[in-house]
Amino acid sequence: MAEDKYNRKNPAVKRILQEVKEMQSNPSDDFMSLPLEENIFEWQFAIRGPRDSEFEGGIYHGRIQLPAEYPFKPPSFMLLTPNGRFETQTKICLSISNHHPEHWQPSWSVRTALVALIAFMPTSPNGALGSLDYPKEERQALAIKARDSAPKFGSPERQKLIDEIHDYMLSKAQPVPQSNENSEVHADHKEIQQIPQDNVEDTAETLPLPAEENEIVEEPNETPPDPNVAQTSQQIPDMPTTSQQVLHKPEARVPKPADDRLFTLAAFGLTIAIVVLLLKKFLKANGHGAVFMDES
């Protein structure tokens, strides 16, 4: 790195050289970033997709531009690897970028910004400038593709740095996890491929023959007929249905509600008659029978 051409007393140069030294002495498995040889204000970086997300296992390259007033003004970020979350070769809008200088803190560094960028990856874009909202499956496919090779961008010197960073990140990267849905799809696909041809031929043999031209034919279902279903449908005319069996059975005599009411009234009337007879007998025995007979 041509450090001699820079004024080491300049606050920005002093801060950048300090961060370069710290990045080299304390590397991370989640990211790597270094400045160009010819311009320490131009950085290349690569981050690893956050764990437990659709970006896991992916290696995403990007570009950082530090302003002359760094660290008192924020840097700008640009992704170079297709990822489904941020547009490529477009300055993205984040609270740590030059789109929001009011949020930037001079104590933050390139390392701090890269950690924040990784955290922003699985969040909702909410229509922010330079953001994308691809489906989860497409992001997973891009994560796998991002491991194959580094993006092509810039001069040969820049490309050499990009390739070196990619090799370092690839040596630290974990395999891309396979989702449960994809595993189930592959398993189902294998089962379909392993279906014996004999079963297919048997199914084809049970298909009904075409009807005559003048006959009225019921429109077939879109699904092919099952052999078991075809055999069952042929046996239906010989077997009485459940409703037919019920109709031919002798119905048991069930008392109707009206009969119950008549029986109750008859019992009630008989009870009254017995009470009246007992009352007459009682009155007659006590000498009141004549009066009772005259009033009746």
UniProtKB/TrEMBL annotation:
Region of interest: Disordered: 216-235
Keyword Zinc carried by entry: no
Keyword terms: Membrane, Transmembrane, Transmembrane helix
Pfam families hit by this protein: UQ_con
PROSITE patterns: UBC_2 (PS50127)
Parts of the chain that traverse the membrane: 262-279
All residue ranges annotated as the UBC core domain in the record: 11-159
Protein name: Ubiquitin-conjugating enzyme 32
Organism from which the protein derives: Perilla frutescens var. hirtella (Perilla citriodora)
